[in-house]
Structure formats: structure tokens, C-alpha cells
Amino acid sequence: MKISERGQITIPKPLRDQYGFNKNVEVELEPTKEGVLIHKRVRSKHPVDQIFGILKKYSDTDSYIEEIRGR
């Protein structure tokens, strides 16, 4: 594997498939004693997405509004 003039490398397809490095996946490079570790960037979810569905109450908004209004 060579590094291009622009500093780019190509990860072989079998490795991309094995580790899920698909198109537009962001990766991070982490220096280690042995070299550089490449891993997928873990994006934290938006706070609303983290708690969405936590109450396990599955109803639409209109039904909920009617319920709390006592109708």
C-alpha cells in the first residue's frame, strides 16, 4: 500500500467490507506504539435522540394531547 502525493491511502475492499468502512464513513487515526490505528468515528447522538422512546409510550401526539386534556 502506498501513500499518494496528496496523503491518501486506499483501504483494500475486503478490509473495508469486514470492518464496515463504507462510503462517507468518518474514521479517526489514533497513534499507538506500533503505528497508527484506524477506527470508525463514534458520533454521539443528539440528546433528544438519546432519550426518545425512553417512556415506551407509543402513541401519536394528537392522542396524547387529547388524553392530557381529559377528552
Write the layout of secondary structure elements.
Blueprint: H1 13-19, E1 27-31, E2 36-40, H2 47-51, H3 61-68
Antiparallel strand pairs: 1-2
The gyration radius over C-alpha positions equals 22 Å
Strands ordered across the widest β-sheet = 1-2
Percent helix range: 25-40%
By DSSP (H or I, 4+ residues per run), the number of helices equals 3
Largest sheet: 2 strands, antiparallel
Number of domains: 1
Provide a short characterization of the protein structure:
This protein is α+β, with helices and mostly antiparallel strands and 71 residues long.
Characterization of the model:
With 71 residues, the chain is α+β, with helices and mostly antiparallel strands. It has one domain. 28% of the residues lie in helices and 14% in strands. The chain contains three helices and two strands; from the N terminus they run H-E-E-H-H. The chain has a two-stranded antiparallel sheet with strand order 1-2. The radius of gyration is 22 Å and the shape is rod-shaped. The protein starts with 12 loop residues before the first helix and ends with a helix. The mean pLDDT is 85.
